Amino acid sequence: MSVWSAIAITLVSVVGMEIFAWAIHKYVMHGAGWGWHESHHKETEGPFETNDLYAVCFSVIAAGLFIAGSLWSETLWFIALGLTIYGLLYAFVHDGLVHQRWPFFVKTRGRYMKRLVQAHRLHHAVHTRDGAVSFGFLWAEDVRKLKAKLKAGSTDRT
Ligand SMILES: [Zn+2]
Ligand SMILES: [Zn+2]
Fold first, then answer.
1. 66 C-alpha vs ligand 1 centroid, how far in Å?
2. Nearest ligand to the CA atom of 132
3. Residue ranges of the domains in the chain?
4. How far is the CA of 36 from the centre of ligand 2 (A)?
5. Which parts of the sequence belong to the Fatty acid hydroxylase domain (predicted)?
């Protein structure tokens, strides 16, 4: 495989993961999988929350893909690499910048990063399964639009 194909597969896999994660967050975590995700929308004690099990699942899947990839397919191996890079970006942006779960302070710099953090804070404005906005982790809509959506949603519910 050429270097360019390898880079292309990895990048497509990172972008694909954001779309996949968005869908999982919206339809599974805020759906049938709410049981695990609820812990992330409530105050929890201790360094871990039940929601972290999702990250564990994804790590196991990535490890499996690396093994399968090295045995049978180079393409699969680079997909696994993309998945892992996505996981690291998620850990940096979501756990680091937004929730400050790292043992040291991570400062948010740049307009887009600030928008990303604000958008995810708006996701946490809702503590219930339904009515939340902004399900992406690396991509976020304009904050004003999200606020409008949130407002519209809350009047719908009452
Ligand atoms: Zn959520
Ligand atoms: Zn969060």
1. 28
2. 1
3. 3-157
4. 13
5. 11-137
**Residue 104 pLDDT exceeds 60:** yes
Closest-approaching ligand to the CA atom of 25? 1
Amino acid, res. 95? D
Cα angle: 84, vertex 70, 3; to 5 degrees: 70
Residue 158 scores a pLDDT above 70: no
Q: At what angle do helices 143-157 and 111-123 cross, to 10 degrees?
A: 10
Task: Please state the φ and ψ torsions of residue 103, each to the nearest 5 degrees.
Answer: -70, -10
Ligand 1 centroid to 132 CA: how many Å?
7
Q: pLDDT tens-digit profile of 3-46?
A: 999 999 999 999 999 999 999 999 999 999 999 999 999 988 88
Whole-angstrom Cα distance, residue 22 to residue 49? 20
Average pLDDT in the chain: 94
CA of 51 to the centre of ligand 2 (A): 10
- 99 C-alpha vs ligand 2 centroid, how far in Å? 7
